[in-house]
Amino acid sequence: MFPDGSVEVMPTPAAVRRAQELGLDLILVSPTAEPPVAKAMDYGQWQYEQKKRQHEAKKKQHVIQVKELKFRPNTDDHDYEFKKNHAIRFLKEGNRVKAVVQFRGREIAHVDLGKKLLLRFAEDLAGVGQIEGQPKLEGRNAHLLISPSKVKEKPEKSKENPPLPPAATA
């Protein structure tokens, strides 16, 4: 392909010679195509455009993080609600949540309390997240992973305030 819009199938040396006559470089666009596709253009300009495209693509991507919330088996209701609200916010942002119940000292004898707390937490977040497996006990910690729901809620149009008709011109 050449800047004047002409598209030709030609041997590589001839294409290179023609690009040099125009003061341009021959850039291989699609080497796997049959025949390979090359374009005559300024190599520096092409590099600049490639970097710009990569930068734009990187700007639009969202890295999913795992946010961790720590509980104890006897966590108070207010603290539980506070952490639950944080988890809801994290899930709505698209991040995963790892809920961890830490057992210290003799608390390890009451693992069932920690698992009940994690199941209650997962049940409260059922609307915004999905549970990944069951609560697992590893050492002195029980943990549960919750990922955001795939379904995005679309805002419904309100029927209470219908749109006004266009104003009549006088």
Question: Which properties best describe this structure?
Answer:
170 residues, alpha+beta, Ubiquitin-like (UB roll), 2 domains, four-stranded mixed β-sheet, two-stranded antiparallel ribbon
Walkthrough of the structure:
The structure is a single chain. With 170 residues, the protein is of the alpha+beta class. It folds into two domains: 12-58, Translation initiation factor 3 (IF-3), N-terminal domain (Ubiquitin-like (UB roll), Roll), CATH 3.10.20.80; 66-148, 2-Layer Sandwich (Translation Initiation Factor IF3). The protein contains four helices and six strands. It has helices at 12-21, 43-60, 77-92, 111-124; strands at residues 25-30, 37-41, 66-71, 96-102, 129-138, 141-148. The chain has a four-stranded mixed β-sheet, with helices on one face. The longest helix has 18 residues, at 43-60. The radius of gyration is 30 Å and the shape is elongated. The chain starts with 11 loop residues before the first helix and ends in a 22-residue tail after the last strand. The model has no long low-confidence stretch (mean pLDDT 83).
CATH topology of the largest domain: Translation Initiation Factor IF3
Radius of gyration: 30 Å
CATH architectural type of the largest domain: 2-Layer Sandwich
The spatial strand order of the largest sheet comes to 3-4-6-5
The CATH class of the largest domain: Alpha Beta
Global geometry:
elongated
Q: What gap, in angstroms, lies between the N and C termini?
A: 58 Å
Average per-residue pLDDT, rounded, comes to 83
N-to-C series of helices and strands:
HEEHEHEHEE
Instruction: Name the CATH superfamily classification of the largest domain.
Output: Translation initiation factor 3 (IF-3), C-terminal domain
